[in-house]
Fold this protein.
Amino acid sequence: MSLVKLYDTTLRDGTQAEDISFLLEDKIRIALKLDEMGVHYIEGGWPGSNPKDVAFFKEIKKEKLSQAKIAAFGSTRRAKVTPDKDQNICTLVQAEPDVVTIFGKTWDFHVHEALRISLDENLELIFDSLEYLKANVPEVFYDAEHFFDGYKANPEYAIKTLKAAEQAKTDCIVLCDTNGGTMPFELAQIIKEVRKHIKTPLGIHTHNDSECAVANSLVAVNEGIVQVQGTINGFGERCGNANLCSIIPALRLKMKMECISDEQLRKLSELSRFVYELTNLSPDKHQPYVGKSAFAHKGGVHVSAIQRHPETYEHLRPELVGNSTRVLISDLSGRSNILAKAEEFNINLDSKDPVTLEILDNIKEMEHRGYQFEGAEASFELLMKRALGTHRKFFSVIGFRVIDEKRHEEQKPLSEATIMVKVGGKVEHTAAEGNGPVNALDNALRKALEKFYPHLKEVKLVDYKVRVLPAGQGTASATRVLIESADKDSRWGTVGVSDNIVDASYQALLDSIEYKLHKDETEGAKK
């Protein structure tokens, strides 16, 4: 197995993405996760650019990493300033990282327009900077910025810049597709030409502006590249960087390259979600390998096939990357979906059981009315239990009322809900205010039931989505409400549909609470 080194730049390049900013504590936590994952190099930031990155290199020294090396990022020296007097270069050395990675210009267009120096002066910048760093830092990498664009514009000069880095005895020269516009077939041919002139180990750093970052990285490895740079979940400026969550399993499972262990690979989905959590962004469910929908099956024919042989509709076993097969329920569902879902919920069903057909017909009729169970598996489980007669009614709602009142033009509306519930033989009549009618109803329902079921205080509403169903009736259209709830152990989704948004929300809220009570009862019985 050939060894490919993984170089993660989530903590530097990833933070250049819109809407992403990490606290110092976040960066440390991510670095520890990356080390646990088996990443070889972790780029911590640019110590010369901001105090947070300076602090990172101080704090990370207090942590015990199992094998990852910490890299600091910067640029070549400024023109007419020697490396030992250049503030950027000095700051890189003072940070005392395991590795320093600096970038330099390889495109003659940038040399003339950005640096405004001669082509020969730029070669001196590259050589001097790298030679100085090699004398002061254990390992030095050179990022050849805009290399592929530079090569296409002036191949002879682009190669000269790499030779300058090679003469400085750089440990690895990284070819960068900085603008993300290079096609895989172009990249492969250019790397072939580069290897005729350069003997130093080569790396690859690609951006995703043409949706080719992952493909370009894999093509580069196929051409002999030994270091791959990228970010977790493909975070990065503009359209993002090469996504290591796709590159790593492709290297390990498709190309049979040595990069991380099988045990570490099984933590990939967890790492992806962890980084999403710290960025406060919702995970991309359709992300290959690690996304929630990456191994989700909806069509009845597909489900029937994967139950016999998963390989029929899955390109690899999801457990290899820490993911899992999911069966979705919709109006495309067949008996196989219902049976697979029932098995997932530990409910015994038979394909010939009339209840199975009843559930299937009920689902198709409900989805025709606008229900959607793909993101509301808790509602679907309750639906099955009701059909089987195993649904326990923990409480009943006798009635509720919601008042939305605006007393003055400049004041916010006031929302108040009153609700009457019956638990056993006791009736509880409660009122609560809220930030809008749905929040008021939620507060009133919880307030009434928490007296009987205190553990409902653990439930938090994580997400609330409203979709207007296409009926062409404007504000009188039906709405579908999807609610995601969570407690300390798990998350679950519920759904409600009505031409009254409060009623649709009420249905989803009710299912959420009922599911929590059923879940706790089942888990209590197991203990």
In short: The chain has three domains: 5-260, 296-387, 395-452.
